[in-house]
Amino acid sequence: MQKYRLLAPGPVTVPERVLLAMARPMIHHRSPEFLPVLEEIRENLRRLFQTTQDVLILASSGTGAMEAAVSNLVSPGDQAVVVRGGKFGERWAELCTAYGAEPICIDVEWGQAVDPSAVRKALEQNPDAKALYVQASETSTGVYHPIRELAQVVREQGNRLIVVDAISGLGVHDMPMDEWGLDVVLSGSQKSFMLPPGLAFIALSERAQAAIQESQSPRYYFDLRKVLKAQAGNQTAYTPAVSLLFGLRESLAMVFEEGLENVFRRHATLSKATRAAMRALGLKLFAPDSPSYACTAVWVPDGIDGKALTKRLRDEYGITIAGGQNQMAGKIFCVAHLGYVDRFDVITAVAAIEMLLGEMGYPVKLGEGMRAASEILKDMPAKGA
Ligand SMILES: Cc1ncc(COP(=O)(O)O)c(C=O)c1O
């Protein structure tokens, strides 16, 4: 017998409570029964994003919200500054190009966070650039970019917008949207939301709401003007993913039962414990300076086949983690501690990595990683942080 354990940075394990909520019989989305469901979700999404603005709900994966953030804000021929420090930063550039805009890319070495002064320089040198596009947590490298500082830089630069892909960063890192002056924050359901894939979320500041009226880019399903208007009347523009919304109502309830502060602290502690465990095993962290609390990226040690490591963990240990993407394939692996994860999930992942590395010929002393993790996790209350 082998259990299936999902410790990749999305999709993540869905709690039983959420699964059961989604098993409810279907109701009509224009019926009176649906209205309080949507209302409660909208209220809790505002609390989660830490904004007074409505958080728009799209039936798509996270990339749908990324596409909406481009098509609604830039017109063909516009320029936009893009932080390109991983696979998802590359996606911002690809989306800009797809909509006929010119991405001005700040190339950041994978594993490093962007330097805010590089962003200041790029914005100063390109006064017509409409927006800065960046990831909060760049999942492909396990890096957290300094969003608060970047927002300050953008604010210094007049009427530019800062657009944050927080698909794996929201509900993990504390990023108060209104307080920090973020213009667009977007996310996806299969991450800290503890839901299956299929929903994307996007919140717009007043500045961004004004900007979406101006874009000349073609758009229809992801025309945020329509979505904004419908949601303002507690309706959805199109048929929503009703079952996922039942799940969302439940998962948001779980987040606020735990308490948002505790959710952030839990992710920070699980991340710290994972990093300590990897170091104790003599492994090198891929993003030591500015780690994302969603996942820990680790260099595969010399002499070990990285692709075989993730494959054997999945096939022989039942544990799915992520491998490296693009040029990092086989060179790094990435253990997630995102969403419905507690301290014993971290212990399990560390134990499995120790055992497998030993089997693959890497010199480990079984228990060293687990001990380092336990030292940090032992004081973590079972409930909350
Ligand atoms: C930071 C980030 N951006 C974008 C995406 C793409 O989201 P999706 O696969 O839901 O379209 C992901 C997915 O892993 C992500 O982690």
Topology of helices and strands:
Elements: E1 5-6, H1 16-22, H2 34-49, E2 55-58, H3 62-71, E3 79-84, H4 87-98, E4 102-107, H5 116-125, E5 131-135, E6 137-138, E7 143-144, H6 147-156, E8 161-165, H7 177-180, E9 184-188, E10 200-204, H8 206-211, H9 224-232, H10 242-258, H11 260-280, E11 295-299, H12 306-317, E12 319-320, E13 322-323, E14 332-336, H13 343-359, H14 368-377
Parallel strand pairs: 1-12, 3-4, 3-5, 5-8, 8-9
Antiparallel strand pairs: 2-10, 6-7, 9-10, 11-14, 13-14
Helix pairs in contact: 1-10, 2-10, 5-6, 10-11, 11-13, 11-14, 12-13, 13-14
Residues 10, 61-63, 88, 135, 137, 139, 165, 167-168, 188, 197 line the site of pyridoxal-5'-phosphate.
Helical/strand content category? alpha/beta
Widest sheet, order of strands: 2-10-9-8-5-3-4
- Count of DSSP E strands? 14
Distance between the termini: 32 Å
Structure description:
This protein is an alpha/beta fold and 385 residues long. The protein folds into two domains: 16-257, 3-Layer(aba) Sandwich (Aspartate Aminotransferase, domain 2); 259-377, Aspartate Aminotransferase, domain 1. The chain has helices at 16-22, 34-49, 62-71, 87-98, 116-125, 147-156, 177-180, 206-211, 224-232, 242-258, 260-280, 306-317, 343-359, 368-377, and strands at 5-6, 55-58, 79-84, 102-107, 131-135, 137-138, 143-144, 161-165, 184-188, 200-204, 295-299, 319-320, 322-323, 332-336. The strands form four sheets. The chain has a seven-stranded mixed beta sheet, with helices on both faces. Strands 11-14-13 form a three-stranded antiparallel beta sheet, with helices on one face. Strands 1-12 form a two-stranded parallel sheet. α2 (34-49) packs across α10, α5 (116-125) runs parallel beside α6 (147-156) and α11 (260-280) runs antiparallel to α14. The mean pLDDT is 97. It binds pyridoxal-5'-phosphate. Pyridoxal-5'-phosphate binds next to α3.
